């Protein structure tokens, strides 16, 4: 459990009694009360503006003051101060980057200490971090828990009751739009010099975005064979993420304003890639049995909003299995070849007039390019190798 907070001047806090679910703690800081309440494993992460740290001669001075007042089990992270070079969005970025780097599990956000503007920045950053963690499991499901803690002003009661409530965050299934060449605002020359040092990172990230787009569109537009035929996920997401963290932090270190949306979207893309990669690694072979089992279950995920895909995929696979049941053959045959041999599919014997439309209309099982093989009692599907590049281009740009 991590307890997150921003602080004001430590000397202005008074010792009071905090009540948390019936337990009372006497301390200067509600964060210390929460730490004691949750016990072993609980830690407080304090985000302190540079201007506040300067009042105490730096990080060590502020840390000493908090310990002097009885706070334990905390770490301090410096964030930019508003009113100097930093905008509100830069403060949010700085907190978000540190959360990604630290990767806390369940979190509690304290909103009753520190200046309101920094508290608001903390809540904004935590919402984005929760989105990031939920996107890491977007295909698998599951929730990432974040709560907010608050209490009345100290002057209102002898014992301050601390309330904990959920911090709701909605996560949507969409491709995060971003560009590592456009993370900064202004300071073009200095930012450009920094960007040149990360040319390799930006190239790898463009490759990651391309593969992410293929994976996303394959699910959204219901072409599951792409997970067996096109996707590899060879890029190391951990290494790429560390590179982007260093890249963004170098901008902040050089007092260059960042584009909050593009920065967070870069990490959202990596998070989604992890979920897609985990799903792909759980697949074995493109049998009709596995396609129905894994992808029909996937489309039931309410976060994706793609339940109708399951209906079409089920019908298309049932049609293929019905066609196969009428034939015995060795090797691979296209669906079109098998239709030519079947009297039940007379109306389907011709070539597709609009191949791209038919590709997406039939779950990617275009009859001219989809091959069928009988193997160990299973029906195995695949695309003809000579058309994989064309199919990849269609999935990347499905619009007509």
TrEMBL record:
The lineage of its organism: Archaea, Methanobacteriati, Methanobacteriota, Archaeoglobi, Archaeoglobales. Residues 308-381 form the CRISPR system endoribonuclease Csx1-like HEPN domain. This is CRISPR system endoribonuclease Csx1-like HEPN domain-containing protein. Pfam families: Csx1_HEPN. InterPro entries: CRISPR-assoc_Csx1_C, Csx1-like_HEPN.
């Amino acid at each position: 459990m991590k307890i997150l907070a921003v602080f004001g001047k430590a000397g202005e806090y008074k010792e009071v009694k905090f009540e948390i679910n019936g337990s009372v703690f006497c301390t200067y800081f509600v964060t210390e009360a929460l730490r004691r309440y949750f016990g072993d494993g609980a830690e407080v992460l304090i985000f302190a503006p540079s201007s506040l740290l300067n009042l105490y001669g730096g990080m060590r001075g502020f840390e000493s003051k908090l310990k002097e007042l009885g706070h334990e089990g905390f770490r301090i992270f410096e964030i930019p101060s508003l009113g100097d070079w930093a905008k509100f969005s830069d403060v949010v970025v700085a907190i978000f980057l540190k959360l990604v780097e630290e990767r806390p599990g369940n979190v509690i956000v304290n909103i009753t200490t520190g200046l309101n503007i920094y508290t608001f920045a903390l809540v904004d950053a935590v919402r984005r971090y929760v989105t990031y963690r939920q996107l890491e499991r977007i295909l698998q499901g599951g929730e990432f828990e974040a709560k907010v803690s608050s209490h009345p002003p100290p002057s209102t009661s002898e014992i301050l009751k601390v309330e904990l409530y959920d911090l709701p965050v909605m996560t949507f299934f969409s491709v995060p739009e971003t560009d590592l060449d456009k993370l900064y605002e202004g300071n073009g020359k200095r930012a450009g010099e920094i960007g040149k040092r990360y040319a390799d990172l930006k190239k790898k990230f463009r490759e990651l975005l391309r593969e992410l787009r293929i994976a996303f569109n394959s699910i959204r537009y219901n072409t599951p064979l792409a997970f067996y035929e096109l996707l590899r996920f060879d890029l190391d997401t951990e290494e790429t993420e560390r590179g982007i963290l260093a890249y963004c932090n170098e901008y902040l270190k050089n007092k260059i304003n960042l584009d909050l949306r593009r920065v967070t979207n870069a990490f959202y893309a990596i998070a989604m890639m992890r979920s897609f990669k985990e799903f792909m690694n759980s697949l074995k072979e493109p049998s009709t049995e596995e396609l129905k089992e894994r992808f029909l279950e996937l489309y039931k995920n309410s976060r994706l909003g793609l339940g109708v895909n399951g209906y079409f995929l089920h019908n298309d696979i049932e049609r293929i299995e019905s066609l196969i049941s009428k034939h015995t053959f060795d090797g691979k045959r296209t669906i079109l070849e098998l239709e030519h041999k079947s009297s039940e599919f007379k109306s389907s014997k011709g070539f597709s007039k609009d191949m791209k439309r038919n590709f997406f209309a039939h779950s990617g099982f275009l009859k001219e390019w989809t091959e069928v093989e009988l193997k160990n009692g299973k029906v195995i599907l695949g695309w003809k190798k000579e058309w994989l590049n064309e199919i990849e281009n269609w999935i990347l740009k499905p619009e007509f």
